[in-house]
Amino acid sequence: MKPTNQQKLILDYDGNSVVIAAPGSGKTFVLSQKIKQNLKLLLDHQGIIAISYTNKASNELKSRSLSNGEKPKSSFFGTIDKFNLSEIIIPFAKHLFGIPANEFKIIKNSSLSNEEKEHFEWLDRKITLEELDEEIINIIKEYFLKGLILIETIGVFADYVFTNSIACQKYIKSKYKFIYIDEYQDSGYQQHQIFLKILNLNITATAVGDLNQSIYAFSGKDSKFLLELTENDSFKYFKLDKNHRCHPSIINYSNYLLNPKTELIPVDNNQILFIRTDGNEISIANWIDKYIETIQNTFNVKKLNQIAILTRGNRTGQIIDENLNSKHRLFVSNALDINLNIWSAIFSNLLYFVFDRGHKFIDVIEVFSSYEKFSSKELKKLKLYKQNLESIAIQEPINKEALKTEFIKIAKVISPNTSSQESIELLQSVLSNEIELNSYQSAEEDEINIMTLHKSKGLEFDVVIHLDLYEWILPKKKPGPNNDFNNPIYDNWTQDVNLHYVGITRAKNGCILISSTKRTNYEYKQKQGKDSEFIWDNNIKELRHK
Ligand SMILES: Nc1ncnc2c1ncn2[C@@H]1O[C@H](COP(=O)(O)OP(=O)(O)OP(=O)(O)O)[C@@H](O)[C@H]1O
User: What is the distance in A from the centroid of ligand 1 to the CA of 60?
Assistant: First the structure.
């Protein structure tokens, strides 16, 4: 693929840059090309930091950056939490606080007793480093010495360690020469602070994002930090605004959704349409079954896994999963994947290795340690365990107990000091849940994907079938005070427009928006289904197929 002029400008610039990128404009392509260029300049003990929003996005960026057999050298690919833990807190907090008595356990505030929760009331205040008083630092220290780190404190804890440990700063400065953060619109305050501090170490920084794809405000993320960087003199500001993915009519529709004054591209036909079925979500599943071949023919879909059904929440996904006859695969999240224990990350990657042919064993090994660090005896063991896994994987049905045993043996070699009973229990829970387990496998060529809009971020399909377009659901709203249905309150209109925008812009050739006359609410009661405001506002129907 040849870079466009816009992309080339970014690839050739060797200072700090902030890139505002439209959907499908090739930001993953540009990032991976830049990382390839950097890796050539680095010595083996040096690396780049590449922060992505999810493990999945990180694996994708890593594999694209190393697609020609490039060596990652000492690079870090992963999420901000993982970076803060493995590069800052775990190696350097002990210099400030002392050696913990137990192995590390990453816990959630919600898992604490009420009495313990009182120690962390300050978390609600979205505390900054400057506001950390001695009392709070002592609480963090006390938990750390017991081997406990609260997920919610990781950002501010890492900021504290980084700022107070010269050794940590020296380590980061000598090891890393470049830092990349993708999806910067979904950065939290703490991530932004760490990024700016790393920049001050003279590490070349690149931030990439799309203000209109900000969809995680509900968990404290804010696109204003990306906007701030565009106004920061230390950064050169680039735009990537050409969408290479979507049919022009889909580009028009998505841009109009954000701003009805948008300039439209002349098009012959609109490849985005709206359907309302008679009945609840089951009638939608029936409609899809009936028209799937027509959809394939109309939009030139060669394989069914190039079609995705996107939902706002898990409930709709489950109903479609249970009622769709066409072959399909439902993707759900699970607690193991988001757990921050090192063993959880190892197990999660091992599940991908066993169930998804695209995954390599080396990706598992390099989660927290580089390949070169293992002795030849350890490498021999790993090779044997890998072969064991491969032979378990081809048995039908898979022996899950044997799988678990091998996983634990591998984790013991990769990260012997972080053994975690919690990770083993989470693994056990995934292994006994068919739907969760199935989510590790990519859709087969003859399977339609079903997933949430949030999960679809960063992906692309020939056709998107976008569900949950109901009033009250998308955009989400609730009745006003005293249950006043005439004066409803929107949860967050802009974030919901963005979510709709993310869904639509996953589509290359066709986008089908669907509502139905009835819908199933959170108590599984049948409600009248009214179309979402997004379907009719600003006369947007003119941009759909008639
Ligand atoms: N220079 C180019 N020439 C042709 N096609 C390109 C070019 N750059 C990117 N593309 C194509 O555009 C599509 C989108 O690219 P990519 O996945 O890198 O976009 P993105 O900006 O990360 O998207 P999003 O933010 O929507 O997830 C891909 O199919 C990619 O192959």
Answer: 13
